[in-house]
DNA sequence: CTGAAAGCGCTAACAG
DNA sequence: CTGTTAGCGCTTTCAG
């Protein structure tokens, strides 16, 4: 057997462990990956020795040799900030689901933003994109890498693309049904319909309103924040603008902002105006009045995203998926 | 110059680009890392050719060769869930700060949980641990890897450890000062003092109360959630238990739960009882009454964590740091 | 059941 | 300014 020179100071390698025991380094490799072709007793001996010597696998070397990284890149389309956290709490919940599923599959997760991804592409076997953005440009950046990828959002891109998201149209329908049931007839939609998910929510909302006797009296473009929700309704409260008795906001944050503005102008919620939000974010039940909302299941969404990107990496066929949503009736 | 055989199908390597142009692959390497030792014209030619051929750097190979990973592992001590998101919104904000700073330094970030970290240690040059937990066991796991690491939390571990966190004692003092100023004399502390950060908050609170005429009439252990906050005060509202006119809750979530319980029992906030929370979480300003709280600056904290772990990796000396906090007075 | 050789793709070190 | 050589640590392939 070929001997190699010992080394000092640095972290021990397989060669070091092999030399210590007088075996070949390939035997160490096999033992540590628990291959049954190595005698049981040898295997445990090697494992113990490696442990004792403080051996740790060099992941870069393995990845180079195996031509894969066991890593999935998760790209966040937006930057987390104090303002947006409340408006879009989903990142953390989605991340939780993704992490859980990747973990189970023995994969690592590198987290980046879209800018960083361009600047310094991490090494990964596949990509999960969270939020496709207003224009589809984020997805285009990922597409260009040639890596397999899946997107959280709405199905508005090219046909082949794999998208996981909530059934936003159904969410819109549920909101409409609820407001109609409460007797609302003159409705407001708050949200940015340039945004794929909001567009679907609006479409479902409109569809369910057809022939109902109710109508959308104003459709106000507005970002996914509390402040934007406030600003969206203020212009309608001075006497000018159409009258309304119901609001469908495309996020809970928008709904909260709108309600604050309404109350500040003496309008009662839900007495004068009924409001339905979207997301069922953690703060919805704590707001006053407690917010009626459309719930999305982000945890499951994250798991699904991870599963699908792994299938894609493995070369399997994969389909898009719209996840069920639910109406959570509270006091607004 | 040595020629190498061409290859089909696979992603092109530096050797492929080199052959295409009739140069050595080391020249390609140098050109792509923009070294001035390569003639300007050659550099641009190589860059363009690489681009055209769809060349992408093999990060594993570079990492193996350079014996580093350009990656920092961020270990979350807890699992994100719908319940805990609201109670501890800091992960995302901390992550934002960390990400920003790592990005600027050209580093990647792998996200794991403490369990996953044990199961399958990712390759990284350093570790950031978010949340040291009740017992210091999470830190012990990281310590065992021998990797340089920093912790978000309170300074309660061994002396050498680098900890970044808010000045929790000062936060406690601010809360005490505010409640005293409002005339409160019989105070409640809600939080888990087994938890290092909560312990410091309590210590600062007690210290500022000394010789003030006011006293802590009950110190109720309680997890960092809305539900726990509710359950913590309910037993005191039936007539048994001490009377109280002020509460310092060690998180906003706890404060919200406590206030809900108080209101449900007919006690007015802030009329009968004044409440101070901790975190100034995004929902604090939306709660009713708007929550008075101690603000922590997570974004800056994240940046600091990243900076310090990078310094550690670079072999520099690094010190722990307690970040300033601020009292945000609202209506509770 | 164990071993030797080869090479993944890249860059440091040393020529020229 | 450019090239040659060597080798990072591991696992695949082929031999025993």
Molecular structure report:
- 2 copies of one chain form a homodimer.
- Chain A has 13 helices and 12 strands.
- Chain A is α/β, with parallel strands linked by helices and 332 residues long.
- Chain A has 3 domains: 14-57, lambda repressor-like DNA-binding domains (434 Repressor (Amino-terminal Domain)), CATH 1.10.260; 71-166 and 298-323, Response regulator (Rossmann fold, 3-Layer(aba) Sandwich), CATH 3.40.50.2300; 168-295, Rossmann fold, CATH 3.40.50.2300.
- Chain A has a 6-stranded parallel beta sheet with strand order 2-1-3-4-5-11, sandwiched between helices. A 6-stranded mixed beta sheet of chain A has the order 7-6-8-9-10-12, sandwiched between helices.
- In chain A, strand 3, helix 8 (137-145) and strand 4 (149-152) form a beta-alpha-beta unit.
- The radius of gyration of chain A is 27 Å and the shape is elongated.
- The termini of chain A are far apart.
- Chains A and B meet through helix 4, helix 5, helix 6, strand 2 and helix 7 of A and helix 4, helix 5, helix 6, strand 2 and helix 7 of B.
- The structure holds a DNA duplex (16 and 16 nucleotides).
Layout of secondary structure:
Two copies of one chain form a homodimer.
Chain A (H helix, E strand, L loop, with lengths): L13 H8 L3 H8 L7 H14 L5 H8 L4 E6 L5 H6 L2 H15 L3 E6 H6 L6 E5 L6 H9 L3 E4 L9 E5 L1 H14 L4 E5 L5 H14 L5 E6 L5 H8 L12 E4 L2 H13 L9 E6 L12 E4 L2 H16 L7 E3 L2 E3 L4
Parallel strand pairs in A: 1-2, 1-3, 3-4, 4-5, 5-11, 6-7, 6-8, 8-9, 9-10
Antiparallel strand pairs in A: 10-12
The structure holds a DNA duplex (16 and 16 nucleotides).
């Amino acid at each position: 057997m070929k001997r190699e020179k010992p080394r000092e100071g640095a972290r021990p390698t397989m060669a070091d462990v092999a030399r210590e025991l007088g075996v070949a380094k390939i035997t160490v490799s096999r033992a540590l990956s628990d291959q049954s072709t190595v005698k049981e007793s040898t295997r445990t001996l090697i494992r113990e020795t490696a442990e004792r010597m403080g051996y740790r696998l060099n992941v870069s070397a393995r990845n180079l040799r195996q031509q894969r990284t066991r890593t999935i890149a998760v790209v966040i389309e937006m930057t987390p900030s104090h303002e947006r956290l409340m408006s879009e709490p989903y990142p953390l919940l989605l991340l939780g689901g993704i992490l859980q599923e990747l973990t189970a599959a023995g994969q690592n997760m590198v987290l980046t933003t879209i800018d960083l991804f361009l600047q310094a592409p991490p090494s990964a076997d596949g990509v999960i994109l969270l939020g496709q953005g207003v224009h589809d440009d984020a997805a285009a950046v990922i597409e260009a890498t040639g890596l397999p990828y899946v997107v959280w959002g709405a199905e508005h891109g090219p046909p082949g693309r794999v998208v996981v998201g909530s059934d936003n149209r159904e969410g819109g329908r549920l909101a409409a049904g609820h407001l109609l049931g409460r007797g609302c007839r003159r409705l407001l939609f708050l949200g940015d319909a340039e945004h794929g998910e909001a567009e679907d929510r609006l479409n479902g909302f409109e569809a369910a309103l057809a022939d109902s006797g109710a109508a959308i009296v104003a459709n106000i473009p507005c970002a996914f924040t509390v402040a934007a929700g406030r600003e969206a309704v203020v212009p309608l409260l001075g006497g000018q603008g159409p009258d309304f008795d119901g609001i469908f906001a495309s996020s809970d944050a928008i709904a909260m902002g709108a309600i604050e503005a309404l109350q500040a102008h003496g309008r009662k919620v839900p007495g004068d105006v009924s409001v339905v939000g979207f997301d069922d974010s953690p703060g919805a039940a704590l707001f006053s009045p407690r917010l009626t909302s459309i719930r999305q299941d982000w945890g499951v969404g994250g798991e699904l995203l991870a599963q699908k990107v792994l299938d894609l990496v493995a070369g399997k066929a994969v389909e898009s998926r719209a996840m069920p949503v639910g109406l959570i009736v509270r006091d607004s």
